[in-house]
Amino acid sequence: MLNKKILHVLVCPLCKGRLVYEPHHAQLVCHLDHLAYPIKKGIPVLIPEKAIKLNGE
Ligand SMILES: [Zn+2]
For the whole prediction, is pTM greater than 0.85? Predict the structure, then answer.
């Protein structure tokens, strides 16, 4: 599982905004950029090229 303490440190590499952890999808979401950063084996992959674009909302 992802260390909860790390979540307070993590920010979006694009906008430096706060990321929202979604445990069910194992991803960190930036609502400003509409991007979901995957978490691979407990390690967040904060690379914009690897992020998944979210549509709508
Ligand atoms: Zn962002």
Answer: no
Distance (angstroms) between ligand 1 centre and the Cα of 19 equals: 8
Contact 40, 47 (CB under 8 A): no
Q: Is the pLDDT of residue 22 over 90?
A: yes
Ordered DSSP codes for 22-49: ETTTTEEEETTTTEEEEEETTEE---GG
Ligand 1 center–CA 18 separation, angstroms:
8
Give 5 Cα–ligand 1 centroid separation in angstroms. Answer: 20
Burial class (CB in 10 A: 0-12, 13-18, 19+), 8: exposed
